[in-house]
Amino acid sequence: MGSSFSGALVPLLLTLKVAGWATAINLVLGIGAGLLLARARFPGRDLLDAALTLPMVMPPTVLGYYLLVLIGTQGPLGGWLLQHFGIRLIFSWQAAVIAAAVVSFPLVFKAARAAFETVDPQLEDAARSLGLGEAAVFFRVTLPLAWRGILAGLLLAFARALGEFGATLMVAGSIPGKTQTLSIAVYEAVQAGQDDVANFLVGVTSLTCIAVLLAAGRLAPGRVLARG
């Protein structure tokens, strides 16, 4: 049993790495997209919002198929990377990161957009009137006022990335020690009748997600307002 649990730590560490990288990617892309949709007005804005939110409601296996077409060795991106740089994304841990980032992206994007929309524009105008440039206004006024909502979204996205299964299996497969994440390891353990390993992995996943959700709840803007 001890060796089984030791082997179960490998997918746990891989899952934490994949979820961490996916969250870091969404930190940049989610904040950028949230700020754009919160402040800019342009034709097709609603359509772009719907497209960016789509991974939240689309079945993960369908997202995985789209990614397979995009980053596969015959796909426009995957084929180009393989031909020009010798980079093969498919069935690698980097493919698992891409899958987790796409699936969890709407959680950061929607949270960031909502957080930016709650920032009082008069405070930003006051900063500009004092001579601050747009970049300084963003980093010294807008972002500090919106960070709680953004951080809550990032924590939720991290928890979602921890449990990602369908899209990851489509583009990264289940290679032990290389692409086998926690959720896939649970599936494989159940299929193999290794109930002890499955119970251990399910317990670790559940406790981690509960801890993340509790942290996200404490950072939610509504809780801050309630305290006030």
TrEMBL record:
Q: What UniProt keywords are attached to this protein's entry?
A: Cell inner membrane, Cell membrane, Membrane, Molybdenum, Transmembrane, Transmembrane helix, Transport
Q: Membrane topology for this entry?
A: Multi-pass membrane protein
Which Gene3D superfamilies does this entry report, sorted A to Z?
MetI-like (1.10.3720.10)
* Chief site of localization: membrane
Q: Which domain of life is it from?
A: Bacteria
Q: InterPro entries attached here?
A: ABC_perm_TupB-like, MetI-like, MetI-like_sf, ModB_ABC
PANTHER family, from UniProt? Answer: MOLYBDENUM TRANSPORT SYSTEM PERMEASE PROTEIN MODB
Similarity comment: family membership: Belongs to the binding-protein-dependent transport system permease family. CysTW subfamily.
What protein name applies here?
Molybdenum transport system permease
Q: Which organism is it from?
A: Aquincola tertiaricarbonis
Query: Gene name on record?
Result: modB
